[in-house]
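Format notes (please read before filing issues)

Several people have asked whether sequences and structure tokens are stored in separate files. They are not. Every record keeps both together, in the order shown below: the sequence lines, then the token lines. Line labels are part of the format and must not be stripped during preprocessing.
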Amino acid sequence: MKPKSKTNPRIAALQALSAAIEATEENIARARRSLGDLEKKLARQHAEFYRQTMQLATSED
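Then the structure lines:
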């Protein structure tokens, strides 16, 4: 009978660590995209707020 091939525990641990690092990198990339979207949204809201503030300021004169 052939002995069952066993995965070296160190190799298995390194594979698990590698998978965790890859998942973390994907999460970081997703978070960066989300942050970029939020920054754009904030910039649009700021511009709209500024526009409305200027409109109010000129209409009160």
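For reference, the curators noted about this record: The chain has a mean pLDDT of 92. The radius of gyration is 27 Å.
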